[in-house]
């Protein structure tokens, strides 16, 4: 581009920052900046805005979004297209059938009947856990019962039972 | 990958984060960004046969932009659908370790989302997707001079909004 500006043109300042000026424009901008505090202030403002946006972090989608997409595919991929990146967008009246992102959203989400079936299944599992009788293991306190019996027998003057605390306790663990 | 042309799964794995970031900065919220990326990957899958190895991210940025702008046009035809123009709606509530940094990012994102589309799109393509003015002009179907002008005005508006927000 061989544009030779003849008056201060703010637009060229962004291009100057982005390295998108011609040599002629660059020389003109630098001349203006040296002479005009207002131009320097505008350049500072534009630089601050540019740096702020460039400093924004990368954004992550939720992991389940990618898991679902990679597991099922993006869908509706029914044939090649001319050039998916080629359609002029901002000023064009339209480039064929517009997409309906709400439909894409519906495809990505499980339908209501799937959710209902999942809910019923979950209820059945919970019911089975709560209501089906479970086999219980019981460990009787043998030593305590023996001692209690010995005390009770002593109080009843039972000579044989009075010897129980003196006996060696047996068991299958020996 | 065949002859330098990736599969759509490779595109999703290796460039999904880039696509999602561009989509999020354009759309201003996660819900719409997911829709944009999903639709973009459909177009990627359908268009890979004709893809000429080159600047893959440039190609992807153009697809994401086209999907986003298609949706903007569709919603303008159906005004009952919400547009992501309300900064309150688009403010992400992302809990982060560094709240100051997160708040700053939120403020910038809100200002970005409040820009009219014709200014926000060139700013995102230049400063998020790292596209040249010529690439942006080709994506949008406008002259390079228009890109230059809209980009500059968009940045000036952003700066004003951020200054007012900080005051």
Q: Explain this structure to me?
A:
The complex is a heterodimer of chains A (174) and B (167). Chain A is mainly alpha-helical. Chain A has a domain at 11-54. Helices cover 52% and strands 0% of the residues of chain A. Chain A has seven helices and no strands. Residues 1-5, 87-98 and 170-174 of chain A have low confidence and may be disordered. By secondary structure, chain B is an all-alpha fold. Chain B has two domains: 1-84, Orthogonal Bundle (Rna Polymerase Sigma Factor, Chain: A), CATH 1.10.1740; 95-167, Winged helix-like DNA-binding domain superfamily/Winged helix DNA-binding domain (Arc Repressor Mutant, subunit A, Orthogonal Bundle), CATH 1.10.10. In chain B, α1 packs across α3, α5 (99-114) packs across α8 and α6 packs across α8. The chains are: A mainly alpha (174), B mainly alpha (167). At the A-B interface, α1, α3, α4 and α5 of A face α1, α2, α3, α5 and α6 of B.
Concise summary:
By secondary structure, chain A is mostly helical. Chain A is 52% helix and 0% strand. With 167 residues, chain B is mainly α.
Kindly, what is the distance between the CA atoms of the first and last residues of chain A, rounded to a whole number of angstroms? 100 Å
Number of helices of chain A: 7
> What is the oligomer described by this structure?
heterodimer
From the spread of the alpha carbons, the general shape of chain A counts as elongated
Shape of chain B: globular
């Amino acid at each position: 581009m061989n544009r030779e500006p003849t008056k201060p043109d703010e637009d060229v300042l962004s291009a100057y920052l982005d390295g998108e000026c011609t040599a002629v424009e660059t020389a003109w901008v630098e001349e203006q900046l040296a002479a005009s505090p207002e131009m320097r202030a505008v350049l500072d403002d534009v630089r601050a805005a540019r740096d702020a946006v460039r400093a924004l972090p990368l954004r992550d989608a939720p992991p389940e979004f990618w898991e679902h997409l990679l597991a099922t595919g993006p869908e509706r991929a029914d044939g090649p297209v001319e050039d998916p990146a080629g359609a002029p967008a901002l000023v064009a009246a339209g480039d064929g059938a517009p997409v309906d992102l709400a439909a894409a959203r519906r495809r990505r989400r499980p339908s209501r009947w799937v959710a209902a079936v999942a809910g019923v299944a979950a209820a059945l599992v919970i019911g089975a856990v709560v209501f089906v009788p479970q086999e219980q293991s019981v460990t009787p306190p043998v030593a305590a019962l023996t001692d209690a019996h010995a005390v009770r027998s002593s109080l009843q003057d039972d000579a044989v039972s009075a010897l129980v605390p003196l006996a060696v306790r047996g068991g299958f663990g020996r | 990958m065949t002859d330098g042309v990736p599969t759509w799964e490779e595109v999703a794995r290796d460039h999904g984060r880039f696509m999602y970031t561009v989509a999020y900065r354009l759309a201003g919220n996660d819900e719409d960004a997911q829709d944009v990326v999903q639709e973009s990957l459909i177009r990627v899958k359908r268009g890979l046969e004709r893809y000429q190895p080159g600047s893959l991210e440039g190609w992807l940025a153009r697809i994401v932009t086209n999907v986003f702008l298609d949706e903007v046009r569709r919603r303008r035809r159906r005004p009952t659908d919400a547009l992501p123009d309300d900064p309150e709606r688009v403010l992400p509530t992302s809990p982060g370790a560094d709240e100051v940094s997160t708040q700053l990012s939120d403020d910038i994102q809100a200002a970005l989302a409040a820009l009219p589309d014709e200014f926000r799109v060139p700013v995102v393509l230049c400063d998020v997707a790292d596209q040249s003015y010529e690439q942006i002009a080709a994506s949008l179907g406008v002259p390079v001079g228009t890109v230059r002008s809209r980009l500059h005005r968009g940045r000036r508006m952003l700066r004003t909004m951020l200054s007012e927000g900080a005051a």
